[in-house]
Amino acid sequence: MDIPFKGDLASNWQLDESIIFLNHGSFGATPTLVLEEQRRWQNLMEAEPVRFFEEIAPNALLESRKAISKLLNCDYDDLALIENATSGVNTILRSLQFNPGDEIIVTNHTYQACRNSLDYVAKKSSAIVVVCDIPFPVKNSQIIFDKIVSCVNKNTKLAMIDTVTSPTGLKLPFEKIVKKLEAMGVKVLLEAAHGIGMFPMDLEEIGASFTISNCHKWLCSPKGVAIMHVRKNLQELIHPLTISHGMTFPLGETTRFRHEFDWTGTRDVSGWCVLPFLINYLENLIDGGLNEIMSLNNKLVLKGREIICKKLNIEKPCPDEMISCIATLKLPGNAVNGIPLHEPDPLHISLLEEYNIQVPVWYWPNPEGRYLRISAHLYNHDSEYEYLADALFKLLNKV
Ligand SMILES: Cc1ncc(COP(=O)(O)O)c(C=O)c1O
Questions:
Q1: Ligand 1 centroid to 376 CA: how many Å?
Q2: pLDDT category, 337, cuts 50, 70, 90?
Q3: Which of 88, 270, 363, 370 satisfies CB 3.0 to 4.6 Å to 41 for a cystine?
Q4: How remote is the CA of residue 52 from the centroid of ligand 1, in Å?
Q5: Structural class in CATH, domain 10-22+289-396
Q6: Is there an atom of ligand 1 within 6 Å of 91 CB?
Q7: What's the gap in Å between 85 CA and the centre of ligand 1?
Q8: In the predicted model, what is the mean pLDDT of residues 44-52?
């Protein structure tokens, strides 16, 4: 098998050249110049820590919120910079008060860490977690919309809705779901771990009560950079996981939400500080900027999925419109049943050790089987999916 090409822009990333990297979806990957810009902020921090934390960082972080608010069409004062999607979900869920019998909707495709957080919160207040089963394969997004809406009743207080599901890579009709549920009086926590940088998002238009999104996935920021958006009228309900000075700081001309989220203790804020640079970098990386990057990534993953389905003679599990920049396929053959999520599938190990391919393979129970999830970003090339398809064909047909 010929070693595949890399995308034309691959040299902008730090990725190991010997690896066929098809898992942007888990942790993202950050371009070299962005990491250098982060280092510049760290040098500023270490040159004069007091001035940095008291004067430089507050202004820089304001600029970061402003830059993100332009991308997401929202008020920058309704945004908090947080570390990751998991902490954002925990922040919202652990701030809200639930009463015994209150219902919270989630789907069976939700990321397990966020589901754990929800189960924990529900158990403490005797609230009920209502799991909406989404079929996979699925014929169209209307089926998912109908199923989620049918779970609502007078006890429903909140729904945690993914933009894109982690195990199955389905782009849910989240705009439509949020609009409907919020209109029915159900607050929505939009779990957009895969969101910003993956497709355009207009938070004012979407209208969710709460939104969290990772910048370290599809916006390619340094690790530990995410945002949380809370609708103005709900901000007094939400507190950071770490209570700090902001709780009692004199209010002045700002809000308690701002005070509480702008300072949660000393930490390395350099990843957050690079956001304006990062957005400008992506806007200028190719003609058409970020919108074009998102569109190219979408086209490439669709092509990759086509190549693999053809080679393995499997059906696409959902229509193209439900694919963003990741795509999941249920592999043919016998699953290695019941391998827990935290243990590697032997196929994943063979792909990595024998073919240098980094791509997630996991067991998933709905329906039971072995699943592969591919990703696409600018550093990828069609031939990498051809190579993966050939490797899968050989490994799955090995006697
Ligand atoms: C849908 C979804 N939610 C949440 C997360 C967690 O993201 P983080 O580790 O940045 O908190 C992931 C990570 O893969 C995810 O796919």
A1: 17
A2: low
A3: 270
A4: 30
A5: alpha beta
A6: no
A7: 6
A8: 98
Domain ranges of the chain: 10-22+289-396, 34-282
Asked if 59 and 262 touch (Cβ cutoff 8 Å), the reply is no
pLDDT tens-digit readout, 231-283: 999 999 999 999 999 999 999 999 999 999 999 999 999 999 999 999 999 99
Residue 251, SS3 per DSSP: coil
- Of all protein residues, whose CA lies closest to atom 10 belonging to ligand 1? 84
What pLDDT is attached to residue 333?
Answer: 75
CB of 166 sitting under 6 A from ligand 1: yes
Q: Which atom of ligand 1 is nearest to the CA of 27?
A: 14
Q: Is 214 in the pocket of ligand 1 (CB under 6 A)?
A: yes
pTM above 0.70, yes or no: yes
pLDDT exceeds 90 at position 137? yes
Query: From the CA atom positions of the chain, what is the Rg in Å?
Result: 21
Tokens of 42: 């760290």
Domains 10-22+289-396 and 34-282 share a fold: no
Q: Is 221 in the pocket of ligand 1 (CB under 6 A)?
A: no
Q: How many CB atoms lie within 10 A of CB 157?
A: 18
Verify whether ligand 1 is closer than 6 Å to residue 86 (CB atom): yes
Contact between 194 and 165 under an 8 Å Cβ cutoff? The reply is no
Question: Could you give the CA distance from residue 352 to residue 344 in angstroms, rounded to a whole number?
Answer: 11
Q: Is ligand 1 within 6 A of the CB of residue 114?
A: yes
What was the pLDDT predicted at 377? 98
Tell me the average pLDDT of the chain: 96
Cβ neighbours of 6 (radius 10 Å): 18
Identify the three-state secondary structure at position 162: strand
The CATH number of 34-282 is which of 2.60.120.260, 3.40.640.10, 3.30.565.60, 3.30.420.40?
A: 3.40.640.10
